[in-house]
Amino acid sequence: MGLDIRLPIGVIFSIYGVILLVYGAVADKTIFLEKSEGVNIDLWWGLAMLVFGLFMAALALRSSRRSES
Amino acid sequence: MQPHFVDYLIIAIYFVFVLGIGFALRGRMKTSEDFFLSGRSIPGWITGLAFMSANLGALEVMGHAANAAKYGMFVNQFYWLAAMLAMCFVGVFMMPFYYGSKVRSVPEFLRKRYDEKTRTLNAISFAVMTLLVSGVDLYAMAILFQRLLNWPFWASVVASALVVAVYIYLGGLTSSIYNEVLQFFLIVFGFLPLAILGLKAVGGFAGLNAKLPPGYAHTWANIWHASDNPMGINWFGTIFGLGFVLSFGYWCTDFLVIQRGLAAKDMAAAQRTPLIAAVPKMFFPLLVVLPGLVAIALDPTTKLMLGGRYDNALPAMLGRFYPSGLLGIGLTALMASFMSGMAGNVTAFNTVWTFDIYQTHINPGKPDHHYLTMGRLATVFAVIVGIGTAFIVLRFNNLMDYLQLLFAFFNAPLFGTFLLGMFWKRTSAHSGFWGLLCGIMAAAAHYTLYHFHYIHYPSDMAANFYQAIWAFVVCFSVTVLVTLFTEPRKEEELVGLVYSLTPRPKTSDLPWYERPGVWAIGILALCAVLNVIFW
Fold first, then answer.
1. What is the pLDDT of residue B480?
2. CB within 10 Å: which end of chain A, N or C, has fewer?
């Protein structure tokens, strides 16, 4: 098939995860009080997206390594 | 709602990836089978998620959130009765015929089972319906971004249409399917925090129940009498109209979803396609129904957040709960849903147009390359017409009505044709055409009578359900009647097309967890549990 869709999914979710993590860390905390019930949702959801992204990328890399050998 | 730089950055990255997938696949489109059917090479989990995602358009996401705000948990019936049964049925019983007969489209199956005129009628009605539907997603998206972000209507219509056109033009169905998988995950990650934050705000499920208007917290308890539930439909209309005719008509015969199964790499993967799709589908109420319920719990008069319109439920909740950053993800998820919905329509249209209309009636016998080019041109054409229909829909005021109306016209009778064709070998070649034609005309007659107030229903949704029932019943009866007066087809011509004449696909050499029957039983059992919990 050539293109393994898990790779682009892994990459975009990792990028989004990092963006949210960084933004959650530096943003003015009042936005979380105002909007997300006091939860720093950017930080937590960024972490979740990053973990998912790395997991997908790892799956894709593992299967491409396996098909090479 | 005030997006910041970070939100626009997230949206921009999404566009780069969507187009990137199209470009990466550009070199792989060598034959028309590559372009229209992905060379029948895709693993089951990918076609399964694409099957689910192609259906996740505007209707699904915004429409069901709006319905949940308007009608309560009743909406779960769309998921836990209608979709589940139909998806298990198509996976276990119907996919073997679609995939096994090597047809390239649903109308082509009708030509094999019935005759050329049945196929042509279906191909034309499907092409028209698909074009009329494809603009809905564009419209919903443009309206949303106009209201939320003050982007001009025409600009967001043209921009998103252009992106969809480019990635399908380059990578055909494969590109569409791959993007649908990406879009599926974005939709899940984009809307899940809404459920979490919404529940926290209303105080969990207990708090939600306490804040909802009476009757909202039940899926089934109020269906026995039409007057007890806000949709005004009794158990017969629900079970037969929605649970049977409309949902089986959609999931089992709509080429938009079947096409994803045809792209699978083998029979087992094709059969598993709708079954894999059913698993996330079962939990989708969490992503769309729950935010609708939270919206109405927090804003019972709909004045505060919803601005008096149920359609605003989902976007209003995004604006209420998402801080900058996550807001970008939420908006991307919305765009992903509109794009996957539109792309599904475009890929289904270009295939039916090229194989069933152009190659059959207008210009047969050309080299394969010619039809590949035609598929690309049809993609561009479909997108341009989609932009046009977006402006037509602008004149209507209710999306859900528009869509269910089209389904009741075209899908509901078609299911009768398929049911008889696949499971009754006596069904004759002529009967399919007449049954289908009369079914569509019955739907038209019913619509006319309702529209001009000769018959009355408590809600438009009820009218749609009964229109579907009439269309199905008429199609079914006429097909049976015509069959009784015409010659049956020879049995040897029907091998692989009719249940009783076709060997069952072998599943004994598959491990138990890959067998379609095991999946179907597991899904229905899990679904029954959900129905009981949220009774």
1. 92
2. C
How many contacts, defined by CB atoms under 8 Å, are there between A and B?
85
Residue with tokens 């949220």: B534
What pairs with residue B264 in β-bridges? B42
Domain around A35: 6-68
B167–chain A Cβ distance below 8 A for any pair = no
Residue of A nearest to B197 (CA): A36
- DSSP assignment of B21-71, as one string? HHHHHGGG--SHHHHHHGGG-B-HHHHHHHHHHHT-SHIIIIIHHHHHHHH
For the stretch B107-135, pLDDT in tens is 888 888 888 889 999 999 889 888 888 88
Residue B189: which domain range? 5-25+40-533
What total of structural domains would you count in chain A?
1
Which of B46, B178, B323 is closest, CB to CB, to A42?
A: B323
Could you tell me the pLDDT band of residue B228, with boundaries at 50, 70 and 90? low
Residue A39 lies in a domain: yes
- B35 is a domain residue: no
Whether ipTM tops 0.90, in short, is yes
The CA-based diameter of chain A, rounded to the nearest angstrom, is 53
Whether B106 and B250 have beta carbons less than 8 Å apart is answered as no
Q: Tell whether A1 is covered by a domain.
A: no
Interface of A with B (CB under 8 A): 1-3, 5, 8-9, 11-13, 15-16, 19-20, 23-24, 27, 31-32, 34-37, 39, 41-42, 45-46, 48-49, 52
Q: Is residue A49 part of a domain?
A: yes
